Amino acid sequence: MAPPRQAHSTPSPISPFTSLANLLRGSQRARLILLIAPALLIIGVFMLLPLGLMAYVSILERGINGGVQWGVHTVDAYVAFLFEEDLLGNLAINPDYLQIFGRSFLLSFVTTAACLAIGFPAAFYMALQPEKYRNLLIFLVTIPFWTNLLVRNYAWILLLRSNGLVNESLMGLGLIDAPITLLYTNFAITLGLVYSFLPFMVLPIYASLEKLDLRLVEAAFDLGANKRRAFQRVIVPLALPGIAAGCILVFVPSLGAFITPELLGGSRSMMIGNLIQSQFGAARNWPLGAALAFALLAIVLLAMMVYLMRFRRPPGTG
Asked: What is the CATH number of domain 95-284?
């Protein structure tokens, strides 16, 4: 008896509509890649490539006359960030760099808080104005950007020095008998940073408050809320995206600021940006400068990750 013949399944013909859909999807994917390719190229060339180069420099050994010795790998630069070697060759904790990092974070935090305290009322006032005046107010906020940052900081030197306008005015009013020290202090640095980065706080908050529906505030009043509770429960939550964006835009540049601490703080109030510049400049210790820059980058990225993990949680999860 002959074995039964096995049935062979014939593949179903591909529909022309399926082929057309696949072709369209492929063309859309290629078009998308072409659209984002310039941005990816710019990010790769101007951000990732320099970061990779700096990462490589940070693990090289310092040259005899400065710079680096290419091909000689070591982690001494990262060790020098926390430790120093005594005359006997033993490692001891070096708090100098940690103090500079701590001062930088403290001044940046104070700058961010001051910008928020000034910028929120200013942005709220701008958002409540008639639309025909808002563009004028935005124009006035952005006027300082028309002047170079170096020139603006030199102007603060003329105002804060011992025979400057501030001390002369206070002495003329009889409030002080002798000039007070304002320049080359942490106060001068904070004042300069607030002046430099205040628009970065005002504009994001204004962008959030501009879309505020005032009927929500009226509804809060109808439900028995006073001005304070309406502000806390309605206005502030709606402005939180702008507040968060403004705080990031102020805190991060303040942390790496160089010109303002250099001119208004002097050598006694060095910040991270000045420390990194001195390692690449006068000290010619490129590996340590690169290691300090990457330590700052790691701290900022860690803080941003904590922020995102905290504020991306669903409501009610704590």
From this structure: 1.10.3720.10
Phi, psi of 92 (to 5 degrees): -130, 150
Whose structure tokens read 């096995």?
Answer: 6
Check residues 89 and 34 and name the one with the higher pLDDT.
Answer: 34
Give residue 206's pLDDT.
Answer: 92
Over residues 231-270, the pLDDT tens digits come to 888 888 888 888 988 998 899 899 888 899 999 987 778 8
Residue with tokens 């020139």: 151
H helices present in the chain, as ranges: 16-43, 49-58, 76-82, 95-128, 131-142, 149-160, 165-172, 186-209, 214-222, 227-230, 236-255, 259-260, 272-280, 286-311
Whole-number Å distance between alpha carbons of 84 and 293: 19
DSSP-derived secondary structure for 34-83: HHHHHHHHHHIIIIIHHHHHHHHHHTEEEPTTSSEEEEEE--HHHHHHHE
All structural domains of the chain with their residue ranges: 95-284
Strand partners of residue 93: 83
Question: How far apart, in whole angstroms, are the C-alpha atoms of residue 73 and residue 287?
Answer: 10
Q: Under a CB-based contact definition with an 8 Å cutoff, are residues 184 and 265 in contact?
A: yes
Per-residue burial over 123-158, b if 16 or more Cβ lie within 10 Å, else e, is bbebbeeeeeeeeebeeebeeeeeeebeebbeebee
pLDDT at 297: 86
pLDDT in tens, 195-226: 999 999 999 999 988 888 778 888 888 788 88
